[in-house]
Amino acid sequence: MTKKIQIFDTTLRDGEQVPGCQLNTIEKIEVARQLEKLGVDIIEAGFPVSSPGDFNSVVEISKSVNQPVICALTRAVKKDIEVAAESLKYAKRKRIHTGIGTSDYHVKYKLGSNRDEIVERAVEAVKFARKMVDDVEFYAEDAGRTDNEYLARVIEEVIKAGATVVNIPDTTGYCLPSEYGEKIAWLVNNVPNIDKAVISTHCHNDLGMATANTLSGVINGAGQVEVTINGIGERAGNTSLEEVVMAIRCHHSLDFETGIDTRQIIKTSKLVSTLMRMPVQPNKAIVGRNAFAHSSGIHQDGVLKNRQNYEIIDPAEVGVKESAIVLTARSGRAALKHRLHLLGYEFDTSALDEVYGRFLELADKKKDISDDDLEIIAGKSKKTGRPPLELVSLQVVCGKTTIPTATVRISFRGDEFTETASGNGPIDAAFTAVVNLVKRRVRLEEFLIQAITRGSDDLGKVHVQIEHKGDNYYGFSANTDIVTASVEAFIDAVGKIA
Ligand code: KIV
Ligand code: ZN
Fold it and tell me: 139 CB under 6 A from ligand 1?
């Protein structure tokens, strides 16, 4: 039977420890709610004893989230555990995550202790936590570098003491995937009561192997993975949620499943990146800007023929609208033709050759070719026929104490129609008027206004992207009046709907 892997998200604890990534309580609640939508099983909401702010965040997240278990981190210290239990008082489902270092480095140099004493402290902490909550997870810090026989002894004792989950962190990101997998297998085979607890992975990415180690752990018997959005976390970060979830989803032969709604992945990634002011590297797996962008001509041609030629994931599965065909000097005719088609231009083979020649000339000088550039290359005259929709006149009323209203007059194949609408601003009002006129259900996907040069009297360029029945349409205009440019661009896009 397919095994369900528990997703334990620690973005708000291990992820938030990163300098500069701190969130306030309101921001943490927003992330926690999005994690709930994403479908994570456990949210590690903070380390309550570390500061009043962290304590308060755990309290507020506990009140705001219903489905996931809320977890609070502690050291193997009674005071920490009491404070954690207090912070979880409003949680519908709660867990205390307590633990201590078990590697010889931690035992000797960090804790100044010895192996027997560490076992005692671990057992005491788990027993104490179990008096307060039913669900207690134990972490053996630096388990990645802990001798397996000693680790098995600690784990056996904490399970006897009542631990429901045993976390085996590769705290320093040291292990190789084979080594980490063998460690988990060792525990499965050498801890007599291991069936009484779930084994959890917690891998750091110091050698870039966090995802591989986590998967190796799961393949060898772990039932929970500790992950963060975008892989954020201490130093090189933690295992990234999206990588593990999508690897499990792509590899059916593993026979694992997660309860993650993968279509929420991009939204969650963007939210975390924005709130934490932590940009995602463009080539980051799954969530990077280029993760579904194809720029070489051979790849673009292959993707346009059948996306599976070069994509193992349908971008829609993770919440990306479509794979991007980035036009550069390496793009081929097929990609250029496709993009021109979306912009409303159609060329026969010989005309396309000519446009392609001009495109290559420009692409040699410029890294990426934008839609504006293509408009210029293609030339307005080459556009197939006259645009079906045109803006005849536009009048807007707006101001600080006025309800923004727009009256739009358009011509449709020679006949003229007028509509007035209000909105939250003049552009919104005008767009609504256009939508009412054309009676098409469209969603504005992107709206970009750029000043071409410096002065306030210069041209503003507007790009819009709209969606209608699953297809995207692009519109462009430039005008010294940005409201007019916006409405023209919108009409340009709407007019491309067949
Ligand atoms: O990396 C680690 O060992 C941790 C523990 C506190 C779980 O984050
Ligand atoms: Zn960690």
Answer: yes
Q: What is the DSSP string of 222-270?
A: --EEEEBGGG--STT-B-BHHHHHHHHHH-GGG-EE----GGGHHHHHH
Flag whether 383 is in a domain. no
Ligand nearest to the CA of 237: 2
The predicted-structure confidence for 43-102, as pLDDT tens digits, reads as follows 999 999 999 999 999 999 999 999 999 999 999 999 999 999 999 999 999 999 999 999
Q: Which structural domain, as residue segments, surrounds residue 198? A: 3-275
Closest CA to 489 of 479, 468, 475: 475
* CA of residue 326 to ligand 2 center, whole Å: 37
Considering the domain boundaries, does residue 50 fall inside one? yes
Which-ligand-closest: CA of 167? 1
What's the token pair of residue 487?
A: 């409405």
pLDDT in tens, 197-236: 999 999 999 999 999 999 999 999 999 999 999 999 989 9
- Asked if residue 216 and residue 164 are part of one domain, the reply reads yes
- In this structure, which residue's CA is closest to atom 2 in ligand 1? 171
- Predicted confidence (pLDDT) at residue 459 exceeds the cutoff of 70: no
